[in-house]
Amino acid sequence: MSENELIDDCLFCKIIRGEIGSYTVFENDDVKAFLDISQVNEGHVLMVPKKHIVNFFDYTAEDAQRFLQYIPEIANAIKKSNPRIQAMNITSNNGPVAGQVVMHSHIHFIPRWEGDGIKFFTRNNADQYDEAKYQAVADAIKAQF
């Protein structure tokens, strides 16, 4: 990727350019993967495209093919690095309301093992839906393709 696909005031663009240090675990012309400074669990890695893209809402089909193909390779390398790792959360927060803090697309690889104490919360709202409401939501989404 060329320098003109990065921006000046982005933390991850600065890491990609080497202006800010990182503990890099994988890098090629398309992506850079490095330890997340927070280390939710040991081995927590971020993968960022070497093109400034704010989040998945801004990806083209070409961007997705180019950058997301590395997810399995990075996930497997992390898993193999520590025999304690039994599973992994692979997540991305898209937009501030969803918890995105750095406005440069990135994927979290968070290793998991039994008893690690991490809780990811979801909720089940199935009791608030009937056949008509499910169909209306599905139809609204389908209409956007």
From TrEMBL:
<dbReference type="InterPro" id="IPR011146">
    <property type="entry name" value="HIT-like"/>
</dbReference>
<dbReference type="Pfam" id="PF01230">
    <property type="entry name" value="HIT"/>
</dbReference>
<protein>
    <submittedName>
        <fullName>HIT family protein</fullName>
    </submittedName>
</protein>
<dbReference type="InterPro" id="IPR001310">
    <property type="entry name" value="Histidine_triad_HIT"/>
</dbReference>
<dbReference type="InterPro" id="IPR019808">
    <property type="entry name" value="Histidine_triad_CS"/>
</dbReference>
<feature type="domain" description="HIT">
    <location>
        <begin position="11"/>
        <end position="119"/>
    </location>
</feature>
<feature type="short sequence motif" description="Histidine triad motif">
    <location>
        <begin position="104"/>
        <end position="108"/>
    </location>
</feature>
<dbReference type="GO" id="GO:0003824">
    <property type="term" value="F:catalytic activity"/>
</dbReference>
<dbReference type="InterPro" id="IPR036265">
    <property type="entry name" value="HIT-like_sf"/>
</dbReference>
<dbReference type="GO" id="GO:0009117">
    <property type="term" value="P:nucleotide metabolic process"/>
</dbReference>
<feature type="active site" description="Tele-AMP-histidine intermediate">
    <location>
        <position position="106"/>
    </location>
</feature>
<dbReference type="InterPro" id="IPR039384">
    <property type="entry name" value="HINT"/>
</dbReference>
